UniProtKB/TrEMBL annotation:
All residue ranges annotated as the FAD dependent oxidoreductase domain in the record: 62-466
SUPFAM superfamilies tied to this protein: FAD/NAD(P)-binding domain
Domain of life: Eukaryota
Protein name: FAD dependent oxidoreductase
Organism: Aspergillus sclerotialis
Segments for region (Disordered): 9-37
Length: 515
Protein backbone atom coordinates (compact mmCIF):
# COMPACT_ATOMS: atom_id res chain seq x y z
CA UNK A 1 0.00 0.00 0.00
CA UNK A 2 1.40 3.41 -0.95
CA UNK A 3 1.84 6.22 1.55
CA UNK A 4 -1.05 8.06 -0.13
CA UNK A 5 -3.47 5.20 0.52
CA UNK A 6 -2.22 4.76 4.08
CA UNK A 7 -3.20 8.35 4.74
CA UNK A 8 -6.60 7.95 3.07
CA UNK A 9 -7.43 4.99 5.31
CA UNK A 10 -5.82 6.28 8.50
CA UNK A 11 -8.63 6.41 11.12
CA UNK A 12 -6.66 8.87 13.25
CA UNK A 13 -7.15 11.55 10.56
CA UNK A 14 -10.59 13.23 10.62
CA UNK A 15 -12.94 11.65 8.05
CA UNK A 16 -13.88 15.07 6.68
CA UNK A 17 -10.26 15.76 5.69
CA UNK A 18 -9.90 12.38 4.03
CA UNK A 19 -13.19 12.80 2.17
CA UNK A 20 -12.06 16.17 0.85
CA UNK A 21 -8.94 14.44 -0.44
CA UNK A 22 -11.06 11.79 -2.17
CA UNK A 23 -13.18 14.52 -3.76
CA UNK A 24 -10.03 16.10 -5.21
CA UNK A 25 -8.76 12.70 -6.36
CA UNK A 26 -11.91 12.19 -8.44
CA UNK A 27 -11.94 15.73 -9.84
CA UNK A 28 -10.48 17.19 -13.04
CA UNK A 29 -6.73 17.83 -12.51
CA UNK A 30 -6.69 20.44 -15.27
CA UNK A 31 -3.83 21.65 -17.47
CA UNK A 32 -0.44 22.51 -15.92
CA UNK A 33 -0.47 26.03 -14.55
CA UNK A 34 2.02 28.51 -16.04
CA UNK A 35 2.62 29.88 -12.54
CA UNK A 36 5.00 27.57 -10.62
CA UNK A 37 7.43 27.41 -7.75
CA UNK A 38 11.06 27.73 -8.90
CA UNK A 39 12.80 24.36 -9.18
CA UNK A 40 16.55 24.35 -8.54
CA UNK A 41 16.97 21.97 -11.48
CA UNK A 42 15.43 24.51 -13.89
CA UNK A 43 17.59 27.48 -12.97
CA UNK A 44 19.41 27.33 -16.31
CA UNK A 45 17.48 26.16 -19.39
CA UNK A 46 19.05 24.08 -22.14
CA UNK A 47 20.10 26.30 -25.06
CA UNK A 48 17.90 24.36 -27.50
CA UNK A 49 14.83 24.95 -25.35
CA UNK A 50 15.41 28.44 -23.99
CA UNK A 51 13.22 30.08 -26.65
CA UNK A 52 9.52 29.34 -27.05
CA UNK A 53 8.31 27.41 -30.07
CA UNK A 54 7.25 29.85 -32.79
CA UNK A 55 6.90 27.79 -35.98
CA UNK A 56 3.39 26.83 -37.09
CA UNK A 57 2.26 23.50 -35.70
CA UNK A 58 2.45 20.47 -37.98
CA UNK A 59 -0.91 19.71 -39.59
CA UNK A 60 -0.66 15.98 -39.00
CA UNK A 61 1.63 13.31 -37.59
CA UNK A 62 1.76 9.60 -36.91
CA UNK A 63 2.26 9.98 -33.14
CA UNK A 64 1.55 12.78 -30.69
CA UNK A 65 3.33 12.46 -27.34
CA UNK A 66 1.79 14.69 -24.67
CA UNK A 67 4.43 15.47 -22.04
CA UNK A 68 8.18 16.12 -22.25
CA UNK A 69 9.54 14.45 -19.12
CA UNK A 70 11.58 11.28 -18.79
CA UNK A 71 8.66 9.10 -19.92
CA UNK A 72 8.06 11.04 -23.12
CA UNK A 73 11.81 11.12 -23.86
CA UNK A 74 12.07 7.35 -23.51
CA UNK A 75 9.04 6.77 -25.75
CA UNK A 76 10.30 9.17 -28.42
CA UNK A 77 13.72 7.53 -28.44
CA UNK A 78 12.31 4.01 -28.83
CA UNK A 79 9.85 5.04 -31.55
CA UNK A 80 12.43 6.96 -33.57
CA UNK A 81 15.11 4.28 -33.30
CA UNK A 82 12.76 1.49 -34.37
CA UNK A 83 10.53 3.35 -36.81
CA UNK A 84 10.34 2.13 -40.39
CA UNK A 85 12.60 4.24 -42.59
CA UNK A 86 9.84 5.76 -44.72
CA UNK A 87 10.51 9.13 -46.30
CA UNK A 88 7.83 11.71 -45.57
CA UNK A 89 6.17 13.39 -48.55
CA UNK A 90 5.62 16.49 -46.44
CA UNK A 91 8.48 17.94 -44.40
CA UNK A 92 5.95 19.91 -42.36
CA UNK A 93 4.41 16.66 -41.10
CA UNK A 94 7.01 14.86 -38.93
CA UNK A 95 6.37 11.33 -37.73
CA UNK A 96 6.55 12.09 -33.99
CA UNK A 97 5.45 15.35 -32.35
CA UNK A 98 5.95 16.02 -28.65
CA UNK A 99 3.71 18.62 -27.02
CA UNK A 100 4.47 20.34 -23.71
CA UNK A 101 2.16 22.80 -21.92
CA UNK A 102 5.05 24.75 -20.35
CA UNK A 103 8.83 24.79 -20.69
CA UNK A 104 10.37 21.48 -21.76
CA UNK A 105 10.79 19.07 -18.83
CA UNK A 106 9.28 21.54 -16.35
CA UNK A 107 6.82 19.07 -14.84
CA UNK A 108 7.44 16.17 -12.47
CA UNK A 109 10.81 15.15 -13.95
CA UNK A 110 12.16 18.68 -13.65
CA UNK A 111 11.09 18.79 -10.01
CA UNK A 112 11.93 15.38 -8.55
CA UNK A 113 14.93 14.29 -6.48
CA UNK A 114 17.02 12.80 -9.31
CA UNK A 115 17.45 9.67 -7.18
CA UNK A 116 17.71 6.33 -9.04
CA UNK A 117 17.00 3.99 -6.16
CA UNK A 118 14.95 0.94 -5.32
CA UNK A 119 15.50 -0.53 -1.87
CA UNK A 120 13.65 -3.77 -2.73
CA UNK A 121 11.73 -3.18 0.50
CA UNK A 122 8.48 -4.19 -1.21
CA UNK A 123 9.68 -7.66 -2.21
CA UNK A 124 8.03 -9.31 0.79
CA UNK A 125 4.69 -7.56 0.26
CA UNK A 126 4.72 -8.26 -3.48
CA UNK A 127 5.49 -11.92 -2.79
CA UNK A 128 2.61 -12.22 -0.32
CA UNK A 129 0.12 -10.70 -2.78
CA UNK A 130 1.28 -11.91 -6.20
CA UNK A 131 3.69 -14.75 -5.50
CA UNK A 132 7.47 -14.94 -5.58
CA UNK A 133 7.90 -15.13 -9.36
CA UNK A 134 5.84 -12.00 -9.93
CA UNK A 135 7.70 -10.20 -7.13
CA UNK A 136 11.04 -11.08 -8.72
CA UNK A 137 9.86 -9.82 -12.09
CA UNK A 138 8.70 -6.49 -10.70
CA UNK A 139 11.91 -5.99 -8.73
CA UNK A 140 14.12 -6.97 -11.68
CA UNK A 141 12.27 -4.42 -13.78
CA UNK A 142 12.86 -1.64 -11.26
CA UNK A 143 16.47 -2.58 -10.55
CA UNK A 144 17.24 -2.66 -14.27
CA UNK A 145 16.83 1.12 -14.45
CA UNK A 146 20.13 1.89 -12.75
CA UNK A 147 22.46 0.09 -15.22
CA UNK A 148 20.21 1.03 -18.15
CA UNK A 149 20.34 4.75 -17.41
CA UNK A 150 24.02 4.76 -16.47
CA UNK A 151 24.96 3.00 -19.71
CA UNK A 152 22.69 5.20 -21.81
CA UNK A 153 24.13 8.38 -20.30
CA UNK A 154 27.62 7.05 -21.05
CA UNK A 155 26.74 6.23 -24.66
CA UNK A 156 25.25 9.68 -25.22
CA UNK A 157 28.09 11.49 -23.47
CA UNK A 158 25.76 12.86 -20.81
CA UNK A 159 27.41 11.57 -17.64
CA UNK A 160 29.36 14.76 -16.92
CA UNK A 161 26.75 17.22 -18.17
CA UNK A 162 23.86 15.58 -16.30
CA UNK A 163 26.06 14.66 -13.32
CA UNK A 164 25.11 10.98 -13.62
CA UNK A 165 26.83 8.95 -10.92
CA UNK A 166 26.61 5.62 -9.12
CA UNK A 167 26.45 5.60 -5.33
CA UNK A 168 25.44 3.40 -2.40
CA UNK A 169 22.08 4.22 -0.85
CA UNK A 170 21.81 4.26 2.94
CA UNK A 171 18.23 3.42 3.89
CA UNK A 172 18.18 4.53 7.51
CA UNK A 173 15.89 3.41 10.35
CA UNK A 174 15.38 4.92 13.79
CA UNK A 175 14.07 2.68 16.60
CA UNK A 176 14.32 -1.02 17.37
CA UNK A 177 10.88 -2.08 16.11
CA UNK A 178 11.14 -0.42 12.66
CA UNK A 179 14.65 -1.82 12.29
CA UNK A 180 13.53 -5.32 13.23
CA UNK A 181 10.74 -5.18 10.63
CA UNK A 182 13.15 -3.82 7.99
CA UNK A 183 15.60 -6.66 8.69
CA UNK A 184 12.82 -9.19 8.21
CA UNK A 185 11.97 -7.73 4.78
CA UNK A 186 15.66 -7.52 3.91
CA UNK A 187 16.30 -11.19 4.68
CA UNK A 188 13.31 -12.25 2.58
CA UNK A 189 14.71 -10.25 -0.35
CA UNK A 190 18.18 -11.79 0.10
CA UNK A 191 16.71 -15.27 0.16
CA UNK A 192 14.30 -14.73 -2.74
CA UNK A 193 16.71 -12.90 -5.05
CA UNK A 194 20.26 -13.93 -4.05
CA UNK A 195 21.94 -12.81 -7.27
CA UNK A 196 20.27 -9.40 -7.44
CA UNK A 197 20.83 -8.74 -3.72
CA UNK A 198 24.50 -9.68 -3.53
CA UNK A 199 25.56 -6.03 -3.09
CA UNK A 200 22.95 -5.31 -0.39
CA UNK A 201 24.11 -5.26 3.24
CA UNK A 202 22.55 -4.57 6.65
CA UNK A 203 24.52 -2.39 9.09
CA UNK A 204 23.69 -1.99 12.77
CA UNK A 205 27.15 -1.82 14.29
CA UNK A 206 27.33 1.46 16.21
CA UNK A 207 30.90 2.28 15.19
CA UNK A 208 30.06 1.67 11.53
CA UNK A 209 26.98 3.87 11.81
CA UNK A 210 29.11 6.59 13.41
CA UNK A 211 31.51 6.30 10.47
CA UNK A 212 28.57 6.87 8.13
CA UNK A 213 27.66 10.05 10.07
CA UNK A 214 24.46 8.30 11.23
CA UNK A 215 25.05 7.89 14.94
CA UNK A 216 21.34 8.49 15.68
CA UNK A 217 20.30 5.56 13.49
CA UNK A 218 19.44 2.09 14.77
CA UNK A 219 20.33 0.42 11.49
CA UNK A 220 20.93 0.91 7.77
CA UNK A 221 20.20 -1.16 4.67
CA UNK A 222 22.67 -0.32 1.89
CA UNK A 223 22.75 -1.18 -1.80
CA UNK A 224 23.51 0.23 -5.27
CA UNK A 225 21.81 3.43 -6.40
CA UNK A 226 22.37 6.38 -8.69
CA UNK A 227 21.78 10.10 -8.89
CA UNK A 228 21.61 12.68 -11.67
CA UNK A 229 20.40 16.16 -12.65
CA UNK A 230 17.02 15.08 -14.10
CA UNK A 231 16.37 18.16 -16.26
CA UNK A 232 19.82 17.99 -17.87
CA UNK A 233 19.47 14.26 -18.51
CA UNK A 234 16.10 14.58 -20.27
CA UNK A 235 16.91 17.72 -22.26
CA UNK A 236 20.20 16.10 -23.29
CA UNK A 237 18.26 13.10 -24.62
CA UNK A 238 15.73 15.29 -26.45
CA UNK A 239 18.43 17.50 -27.98
CA UNK A 240 20.16 14.36 -29.24
CA UNK A 241 16.94 13.11 -30.85
CA UNK A 242 16.27 16.46 -32.52
CA UNK A 243 19.78 16.40 -33.96
CA UNK A 244 19.57 12.80 -35.18
CA UNK A 245 16.00 12.94 -36.51
CA UNK A 246 15.52 16.53 -37.74
CA UNK A 247 12.84 15.64 -40.30
CA UNK A 248 10.85 13.15 -38.26
CA UNK A 249 10.80 14.61 -34.73
CA UNK A 250 9.37 17.91 -33.50
CA UNK A 251 9.00 19.33 -29.99
CA UNK A 252 6.50 22.11 -29.32
CA UNK A 253 6.62 23.81 -25.92
CA UNK A 254 3.97 26.09 -24.40
CA UNK A 255 1.46 24.07 -26.39
CA UNK A 256 -1.36 22.90 -24.15
CA UNK A 257 -3.61 20.11 -25.39
CA UNK A 258 -7.10 21.31 -24.58
CA UNK A 259 -9.16 18.48 -26.12
CA UNK A 260 -8.98 15.29 -28.17
CA UNK A 261 -11.76 14.49 -30.63
CA UNK A 262 -12.62 11.54 -32.83
CA UNK A 263 -11.76 11.93 -36.51
CA UNK A 264 -13.28 8.69 -37.83
CA UNK A 265 -13.34 9.50 -41.54
CA UNK A 266 -9.56 9.78 -41.76
CA UNK A 267 -6.52 7.53 -41.33
CA UNK A 268 -5.56 10.04 -38.65
CA UNK A 269 -8.17 8.98 -36.09
CA UNK A 270 -7.66 11.84 -33.65
CA UNK A 271 -8.00 15.59 -33.81
CA UNK A 272 -5.73 17.02 -31.13
CA UNK A 273 -6.80 20.55 -30.17
CA UNK A 274 -4.19 22.85 -28.64
CA UNK A 275 -3.93 26.51 -27.67
CA UNK A 276 -1.86 26.98 -30.85
CA UNK A 277 -3.96 25.04 -33.34
CA UNK A 278 -5.00 21.51 -34.30
CA UNK A 279 -2.93 18.44 -35.17
CA UNK A 280 -4.32 15.28 -36.76
CA UNK A 281 -2.73 12.12 -35.35
CA UNK A 282 -2.92 8.38 -35.76
CA UNK A 283 -1.74 7.70 -32.22
CA UNK A 284 -1.93 9.80 -29.05
CA UNK A 285 0.28 8.94 -26.07
CA UNK A 286 -0.56 10.42 -22.66
CA UNK A 287 2.60 11.03 -20.60
CA UNK A 288 1.04 13.73 -18.45
CA UNK A 289 1.16 11.72 -15.21
CA UNK A 290 -0.66 13.79 -12.55
CA UNK A 291 -2.69 15.62 -15.23
CA UNK A 292 -3.74 12.54 -17.22
CA UNK A 293 -7.32 12.70 -15.92
CA UNK A 294 -7.90 16.00 -17.74
CA UNK A 295 -7.84 14.45 -21.22
CA UNK A 296 -8.77 10.92 -20.09
CA UNK A 297 -11.66 11.46 -17.64
CA UNK A 298 -12.12 7.73 -17.08
CA UNK A 299 -8.75 7.60 -15.30
CA UNK A 300 -9.85 9.93 -12.50
CA UNK A 301 -9.82 7.96 -9.27
CA UNK A 302 -7.66 5.33 -10.93
CA UNK A 303 -4.68 7.66 -11.34
CA UNK A 304 -4.52 10.66 -9.03
CA UNK A 305 -2.16 13.57 -8.34
CA UNK A 306 -0.18 14.07 -5.16
CA UNK A 307 1.87 17.18 -4.44
CA UNK A 308 5.41 16.69 -3.15
CA UNK A 309 8.10 19.09 -1.96
CA UNK A 310 11.84 19.33 -2.66
CA UNK A 311 14.67 21.55 -1.44
CA UNK A 312 18.28 22.41 -2.25
CA UNK A 313 20.33 23.10 0.87
CA UNK A 314 23.85 24.08 1.86
CA UNK A 315 25.61 21.33 3.86
CA UNK A 316 26.83 21.98 7.38
CA UNK A 317 30.49 22.84 7.92
CA UNK A 318 31.26 19.44 9.52
CA UNK A 319 29.56 17.32 6.85
CA UNK A 320 31.98 15.56 4.47
CA UNK A 321 31.28 15.60 0.75
CA UNK A 322 29.86 12.21 -0.25
CA UNK A 323 28.70 12.95 -3.79
CA UNK A 324 30.22 9.79 -5.31
CA UNK A 325 29.73 7.65 -2.23
CA UNK A 326 26.23 7.81 -0.80
CA UNK A 327 22.61 8.79 -1.15
CA UNK A 328 20.11 8.52 1.69
CA UNK A 329 16.60 7.46 2.64
CA UNK A 330 15.32 8.28 6.12
CA UNK A 331 12.46 6.03 7.22
CA UNK A 332 10.02 7.05 9.96
CA UNK A 333 6.86 5.68 11.56
CA UNK A 334 4.98 7.70 8.94
CA UNK A 335 6.66 8.34 5.62
CA UNK A 336 10.27 8.90 4.57
CA UNK A 337 12.65 11.53 3.17
CA UNK A 338 15.22 11.16 0.38
CA UNK A 339 18.56 12.89 -0.07
CA UNK A 340 21.36 13.14 -2.63
CA UNK A 341 24.40 15.41 -2.84
CA UNK A 342 25.55 17.25 -5.96
CA UNK A 343 29.20 17.59 -7.04
CA UNK A 344 28.91 21.29 -6.13
CA UNK A 345 27.99 20.26 -2.58
CA UNK A 346 24.27 21.05 -2.45
CA UNK A 347 22.10 18.63 -0.52
CA UNK A 348 18.94 17.78 -2.47
CA UNK A 349 16.37 16.85 0.18
CA UNK A 350 12.78 15.90 -0.56
CA UNK A 351 9.90 14.52 1.48
CA UNK A 352 8.26 15.71 4.64
CA UNK A 353 4.97 14.56 3.15
CA UNK A 354 3.30 13.36 6.34
CA UNK A 355 4.39 16.57 8.07
CA UNK A 356 2.23 18.61 5.71
CA UNK A 357 -1.17 20.06 6.49
CA UNK A 358 -3.58 17.39 7.70
CA UNK A 359 -0.61 14.97 7.99
CA UNK A 360 -0.45 14.83 4.21
CA UNK A 361 -4.13 14.80 3.30
CA UNK A 362 -3.98 18.40 2.04
CA UNK A 363 -1.53 17.33 -0.70
CA UNK A 364 -3.62 14.38 -1.97
CA UNK A 365 -5.42 15.15 -5.21
CA UNK A 366 -3.43 18.38 -5.76
CA UNK A 367 -2.06 18.69 -9.31
CA UNK A 368 -0.64 22.21 -9.08
CA UNK A 369 2.96 23.10 -8.26
CA UNK A 370 2.64 26.85 -7.72
CA UNK A 371 2.49 26.86 -3.91
CA UNK A 372 4.61 25.55 -1.05
CA UNK A 373 3.35 23.63 1.93
CA UNK A 374 4.31 25.78 4.91
CA UNK A 375 4.55 22.79 7.26
CA UNK A 376 6.75 20.85 4.81
CA UNK A 377 8.90 23.95 4.36
CA UNK A 378 9.43 24.22 8.11
CA UNK A 379 10.17 20.50 8.42
CA UNK A 380 12.59 20.20 5.47
CA UNK A 381 14.46 23.34 6.50
CA UNK A 382 15.53 21.73 9.79
CA UNK A 383 15.56 17.99 9.07
CA UNK A 384 19.21 17.53 8.10
CA UNK A 385 20.62 19.20 11.19
CA UNK A 386 18.38 16.99 13.35
CA UNK A 387 19.30 13.77 11.53
CA UNK A 388 23.08 14.26 11.37
CA UNK A 389 23.42 16.04 14.74
CA UNK A 390 26.98 17.10 15.61
CA UNK A 391 28.18 15.69 12.28
CA UNK A 392 26.30 18.49 10.50
CA UNK A 393 27.88 21.66 11.85
CA UNK A 394 27.02 25.29 11.17
CA UNK A 395 25.80 26.87 7.95
CA UNK A 396 26.71 30.41 6.95
CA UNK A 397 23.68 32.37 5.77
CA UNK A 398 20.38 30.84 4.68
CA UNK A 399 20.81 27.05 4.56
CA UNK A 400 17.94 26.65 2.07
CA UNK A 401 18.94 27.70 -1.45
CA UNK A 402 15.63 26.69 -3.06
CA UNK A 403 12.31 25.14 -2.08
CA UNK A 404 9.72 24.01 -4.61
CA UNK A 405 6.83 21.64 -5.22
CA UNK A 406 6.00 19.16 -7.95
CA UNK A 407 3.13 16.80 -8.66
CA UNK A 408 3.42 13.04 -8.65
CA UNK A 409 0.84 10.53 -9.85
CA UNK A 410 -0.23 7.49 -7.84
CA UNK A 411 -2.55 4.69 -8.89
CA UNK A 412 -5.29 2.96 -6.94
CA UNK A 413 -3.56 -0.44 -7.17
CA UNK A 414 0.01 0.82 -6.69
CA UNK A 415 1.34 0.11 -10.21
CA UNK A 416 2.01 2.29 -13.24
CA UNK A 417 -0.50 2.24 -16.11
CA UNK A 418 1.18 1.28 -19.39
CA UNK A 419 -0.60 0.34 -22.59
CA UNK A 420 -3.46 0.96 -24.97
CA UNK A 421 -6.45 2.74 -23.45
CA UNK A 422 -9.93 1.24 -23.83
CA UNK A 423 -12.97 3.31 -24.82
CA UNK A 424 -14.37 2.85 -21.31
CA UNK A 425 -11.80 5.31 -19.93
CA UNK A 426 -11.21 7.65 -22.90
CA UNK A 427 -14.94 8.02 -23.71
CA UNK A 428 -13.92 8.30 -27.39
CA UNK A 429 -15.19 5.81 -29.96
CA UNK A 430 -11.97 5.97 -31.99
CA UNK A 431 -10.32 4.04 -29.16
CA UNK A 432 -12.31 0.90 -30.05
CA UNK A 433 -10.16 -1.95 -31.32
CA UNK A 434 -10.88 -2.63 -34.99
CA UNK A 435 -9.82 -6.17 -35.85
CA UNK A 436 -10.30 -5.44 -39.56
CA UNK A 437 -7.74 -2.63 -39.36
CA UNK A 438 -4.84 -3.91 -37.24
CA UNK A 439 -2.70 -0.87 -38.09
CA UNK A 440 -5.31 1.65 -37.02
CA UNK A 441 -4.20 4.23 -34.49
CA UNK A 442 -4.98 4.25 -30.78
CA UNK A 443 -4.69 6.17 -27.54
CA UNK A 444 -2.02 5.08 -25.07
CA UNK A 445 -0.99 5.90 -21.53
CA UNK A 446 2.28 5.69 -19.60
CA UNK A 447 1.79 7.20 -16.16
CA UNK A 448 1.32 6.77 -12.40
CA UNK A 449 4.79 5.98 -11.04
CA UNK A 450 3.90 6.54 -7.38
CA UNK A 451 6.76 8.95 -6.69
CA UNK A 452 9.28 6.39 -7.98
CA UNK A 453 9.60 7.52 -11.57
CA UNK A 454 13.37 7.22 -11.71
CA UNK A 455 13.11 3.42 -11.36
CA UNK A 456 9.95 2.95 -13.42
CA UNK A 457 9.42 5.63 -16.09
CA UNK A 458 12.31 5.00 -18.49
CA UNK A 459 11.58 1.32 -19.11
CA UNK A 460 7.81 1.85 -18.95
CA UNK A 461 8.30 4.29 -21.82
CA UNK A 462 10.39 1.77 -23.73
CA UNK A 463 7.71 -0.90 -23.22
CA UNK A 464 4.88 1.42 -24.30
CA UNK A 465 6.63 2.43 -27.51
CA UNK A 466 7.36 -1.22 -28.28
CA UNK A 467 3.66 -2.10 -27.79
CA UNK A 468 2.67 0.64 -30.23
CA UNK A 469 5.17 -0.54 -32.85
CA UNK A 470 4.00 -4.13 -32.46
CA UNK A 471 0.41 -3.07 -33.09
CA UNK A 472 1.15 -0.74 -36.00
CA UNK A 473 3.62 -2.45 -38.31
CA UNK A 474 3.35 0.41 -40.80
CA UNK A 475 5.49 2.37 -38.34
CA UNK A 476 7.82 -0.39 -37.18
CA UNK A 477 11.06 -1.48 -38.82
CA UNK A 478 10.59 -4.96 -37.32
CA UNK A 479 7.37 -6.77 -36.47
CA UNK A 480 8.71 -8.70 -33.48
CA UNK A 481 9.94 -7.63 -30.07
CA UNK A 482 10.34 -9.30 -26.72
CA UNK A 483 8.29 -7.82 -23.87
CA UNK A 484 8.56 -10.80 -21.55
CA UNK A 485 10.58 -8.64 -19.14
CA UNK A 486 7.69 -6.25 -18.55
CA UNK A 487 5.50 -6.88 -15.43
CA UNK A 488 1.91 -7.84 -16.26
CA UNK A 489 0.59 -5.86 -13.28
CA UNK A 490 1.44 -2.62 -15.10
CA UNK A 491 -0.49 -3.39 -18.27
CA UNK A 492 -3.73 -1.59 -19.11
CA UNK A 493 -6.79 -3.78 -19.57
CA UNK A 494 -10.56 -3.59 -19.12
CA UNK A 495 -10.49 -5.82 -16.04
CA UNK A 496 -7.97 -3.59 -14.31
CA UNK A 497 -9.91 -0.46 -15.26
CA UNK A 498 -13.01 -1.96 -13.67
CA UNK A 499 -11.33 -2.91 -10.39
CA UNK A 500 -8.48 -0.49 -9.71
CA UNK A 501 -10.35 2.62 -8.64
CA UNK A 502 -10.63 4.39 -5.30
CA UNK A 503 -14.12 4.82 -3.83
CA UNK A 504 -15.80 8.20 -4.15
CA UNK A 505 -17.06 8.21 -0.58
CA UNK A 506 -15.14 7.32 2.54
CA UNK A 507 -18.02 6.14 4.73
CA UNK A 508 -18.95 2.49 4.45
CA UNK A 509 -16.27 1.62 1.89
CA UNK A 510 -13.47 -0.88 1.95
CA UNK A 511 -9.96 -0.52 0.61
CA UNK A 512 -10.03 -1.78 -2.99
CA UNK A 513 -6.35 -1.49 -3.91
CA UNK A 514 -4.12 -4.56 -3.96
CA UNK A 515 -1.12 -2.75 -2.53
Amino acid sequence: MSIAQRILYDPSIPPSERQQALDRIHSDPGIPNESTTSSFWLQSLHEKFAQRSSRPLPKKTDVVIIGSGITGASIARTLLQNRANVASSDSLCPAVVMLEARDICSGATGRNGGHIVDTADEYAELSDVFGEEAARKVLRFRLAHLPEMLDFAEDLGLREEAQVRKVKFLSTYFGEEPWKAALGRFHRFKKGMPEESKDWVAIDNKSLLEGLNLSKATGVISGPAGALWPYKFVTGVLAHLLSNYPDTFRIEDHTSVTAIHDNPSSKHKYRVETNRGTILARHVIHCTNAHVGYLVPGLRGRIFPVRGQMSAQTPGSNFPCQVTQHSWLFNYDRGFDYLTQLPSGQMMLGGGFTNGEGRGTADLGVSTDNELSLYCDIYLSGALRAIFGHRWGRVQGDPVQAMWTGNMAFSADGFPWVGRLPESVTHRSSTQVNEAKPNAGAEWVCAAFGGEGMVQAWLCGKALATMLLLQDNELASAAEADLSWFPEQMLVCEERAAKAILPRCLAGTRHQANL
